[in-house]
Amino acid sequence: MKMEKDLLSRLIEYGKSDVYPFHMPGHKRRTDGGFTENFPNPFSVDITEIDGFDNLHHPEGILKESMEWAGNVYGADRTYYLVNGSSCGILSAICGSVSHGGTILMSRNCHKSAYHGVFFSHLKAEYIYPQTITGFGIQGGLAPEDVRRMLINHPETEAVLVVSPTYDGIVSDIEAIAGIVHERGIPLIVDEAHGAHFPFGKEAGFPVSALGLGADVVIQSLHKTLPSLTQTAVMHVKAGFADLDRIDRYVHMFQSSSPSYVLMASIENCIRWMDEAGRHEMMAFGGRLERIRQQLMEMECLTLVDGVKGRCHVFDVDRSKIVVSVGKSGLTGPELQERLRREYRLEMEMCGPDYVTAITTVADTDEGLERLCRAFMEIDLDRKRSAEGCENSAGSCVGKNGDNAGERSSGIVDNGMEKERVCGWPEIAMTIAQAMDAPGQPVPLDDCEGLVSKEFIYIYPPGIPIVAPGEVLKPELVDEIRKYKRKGLPVQGTADPEVEAVLTVADRGNMVNETGKIEG
C-alpha cells in the first residue's frame, strides 16, 4: 500500500503554512525565540546511555545533578524529568501513594491517565464532583468542604488527587484542600499539567503553583504551556506525607527504559530559560494578555469566559487560557472552531459543545495574539449583524455534591439555561478493574441504557471520561453522548471507532439480572 502523503511531508508542509497554533506545545513551533538559541539539531545529540551521560533510571552523574538543580529551582525535595509526559507522573504518584486495592479520593474531572492508575492498582475511587458553570458549559472548582465531607465518609482513603488548573484554566483552593487532606495524614497529589508556567508567573498575576500551597506531589507538563518539546514533563515531590521511595520505584516502572536525551535536554533547557529570563517574559506576556482580554470583553454575541473567580468554587483563573463561549451567537463550539480554522487560519487547542479554548503561552507573538483577537471580534460582529438581540449572559453554578449550595452561596440564580450534568454524573456499579476484567458484550448505543460500561467514553481533548468502566450508562448520559456526536465532537474510547456500540459488562453475578440491567 502506498501512502498518498507521508507524515513527514505533511508536517513539513504544515510547518511552512501560515496556520497559527493556539494549541500545545508551548513553544508554538518557533525557532527564533531565545529558548531555542543554543538548541542543536536533535539528530546530532540523540544518544543513549553512553559514558559520561548518566542513566535516568540510575542517576549518579550529570542527570542526578540536573534534577537536583531543577528541584532547587522549584523548591521540591525531589524533581523527576519525565519523557512520557505528565501521564507517567500521574500513574507513578497514584500507584506510589495508594496500596493495591486501596481507596483514592479524586476529582471526577481527572485526565484519563488517572483512571488508568486506578485500574492498574485495582483501586476503589471515590469522587469529588466540580460544579458546572452553566451558560459557559465549563466545570468550576472543587469545594474544600466537599473534600472534608468525603474524607469523613471514607476514612480508609490513602491519598487525594485533584486537577488544578483544569483544561479551561480553573484553579481550586489548593491551600485549603491541602490543609484538610493533611489533617488525615495522607498526601495531596495535584495534576498541574496545565500550570507549568505558574512557578514563574506569580509577579505577573498568574496563580500560585500548588507546590507552594502545600501539595505533596505536583505533576506539570512543560510542553503544554512552556517552550519545551512534546512529551516533556516534570514531577515534584515533597517529603512528609508522600512516600518518596515508593513513588521513586513506580517512576522507573512507568518511565520508558530508553529515555530520549533530546527530551531531557529540552526539559533542562526550558527550566533554565524560564529561571533566567522567564519571569521577565511572563510579565510582558501578562500585559499582552490583559490587552486582548479587555478587547474580547466587548464582544456581544460571543462571550469571553471571565469574571468567574469566586463563583462555583473557582479560587483563581489562569488568564492564559482564552476560553470563548458561543454565547448567543447561534454557533456551536465545533462550528466556531471550524470558522477560526477555515477563515482565519487559527488552530484552537480544543472545543466543547458550546465553547472553544485557545492556549496562549509566553512564546506567542504579538502578531499571533492580534490575529486571534481580530478573528473573534470579526466573527462576533458578523453574528451580531445576522442575528437579532445578541445578549451575553453570566454563568450560574450547578453541582452534585449536595444540593447546589454553591449556587445559592454565590448569589447566582438560575437564569433558565440548560443545567448541564445536573443528573449527568454516572452511578458507580463496580470498580474500574472489576469492570475491565469482567466478560463483555457490545451493545448498540441506543440499547445500552441501564447497562454497565466496560469502556471509557470521553471527548479527546480533554480526555476526561464521560463514562468510566464500572459506571452505569444512565439515559441522560447516553443522550449526552449522542449530543456530542451530533455536534461533531471527537467522542473516543470505545472499541467501535464510530461509537455506535458500547462494550458493556456481560455478567456481574447477583448485581445484575440476565439482561445486564441494574437490579432494583
Automatic annotation (TrEMBL):
Cofactors, names only: pyridoxal 5'-phosphate
Coiled-coil segments: none
Family label: Belongs to the Orn/Lys/Arg decarboxylase class-I family.
Gene Ontology molecular-function annotations: carboxy-lyase activity
Protein name from the UniProt record: Decarboxylase
A Pfam entry, by short name: OKR_DC_1_C
Keywords: Decarboxylase, Lyase, Pyridoxal phosphate
Annotated ranges, domain Orn/Lys/Arg decarboxylases family 1 pyridoxal-P attachment site: 7-298
Signal peptide, first to last residue: none
Domain Orn/Lys/Arg decarboxylase C-terminal: 427-475
SUPFAM superfamilies, sorted: Ornithine decarboxylase C-terminal domain, PLP-dependent transferases
